Amino acid sequence: MTDQTPNLVLPYIAAAQSQKHVTHNEAIRMLDAIVQVGVASRTLTAPPAAPTDGDRYIVPTGAMGAWAGAPAKIAAWQDGAWAFYMPRTGWLAWVAAEARLYVFNGTAWAAYASGISSVNPIALVGVNATADATNRLAVTSPATLLNHDGAGHQLKINKAATAQTASLLFQNGFSGRAEYGLTGDDNFHVKVSPNGTSWQEAMVVDSASAMTSVRALDSIQFTMVRDTARTITTPTPSGILMINEVHPTSSNAAIAGILCYDIGTTPALASLGLSSRIVNGGVGAFTGRTGTAGNVTLSVGVGVLNIENRSGGANPAQFCITFINGFRSLT
Question: Of 27, 95, 154, 277, which is least surrounded by CB within 10 A?
Answer without folding.
Answer: 154
